Amino acid sequence: MEYKVRIIGDPILRKKAKKVEKIDEKFQELLNNMTNVMYKEDGVGLAAPQIGINKRFFIMDDGKKLRKIINPEIIEFLGDEVVYEEGCLSIPGVFINVKRPEGIKVKYFDENGNEIEEELHDYTARIFQHEYDHLEGVLFVDKVSTAAKAKYKGKLNELMKEGRKIAKELGEVVIE
Ligand SMILES: [Zn+2]
Q: How many percent of the chain have pLDDT more than 70?
């Protein structure tokens, strides 16, 4: 199956995603397909809702390691809030500074069903938080002021229209 990246305006991006119940071979294959989509689109992270799936998982590659993250939890926020410019495959062409905690302590399952607990910092923590937000139906443009978004107003309206159109064509991708 060829997955298409969903664009802001698609209602799937606004849903709170549901827990993954089963990590089997079929699911691992889906994660591999998703990884190909992420690399093809030059992304550093891709969450399930972004390919139309209402489930709690995402993949991320901070340049050091590819992680496949299932049913994640953020246990603790660490350090000061830092500002960093973010973009999103679901909001192409829009880049805005977003403030987030520098570090996080997280828990999740990997693609083999192992429970992982780790502390993430800097860029890695940044990607994780951005992708985690996708599972809550939150987009990075929700976290910035109207003034910061002002120059993208027209662009965002255009993308919303496109996103709604794609949603109508493809609907939600239901996996077991
Ligand atoms: Zn994103």
A: 99
Type of residue numbered 30: L
As a whole number of angstroms, the distance between CA 127 and CA 169 comes to: 29
Q: Among all residues, which ones are annotated catalytic?
A: 131
**Which domains occur in the chain, in start order?**
11-170 (3.90.45.10)
Sheet with strand 45-47: strands edge to edge: 45-47, 57-61, 66-86, 96-109, 115-121
pLDDT in tens, 75-86: 999 999 999 999
Task: Check whether 176 has a pLDDT greater than 90.
Answer: no
Q: What is d(CA 45, CA 163) in angstroms, rounded to the nearest whole number? A: 19
**Ligand 1 center to residue 140 CA distance, Å?**
7
Residue 1 has pLDDT above 80, yes or no: no
| Cα 130 to ligand 1 centroid, rounded to whole Å | 6
* Cα 69 to middle of ligand 1, angstroms: 15
pLDDT band at residue 142 under the 50/70/90 scheme: very high
Cα separation, 110 vs 119, in Å, equals 15
DSSP 50-106: GGT--BSEEEEE-SS-EEEEEEEEEEEEEEEEEEEEE--TTSTT--EEEEEEEEEEE
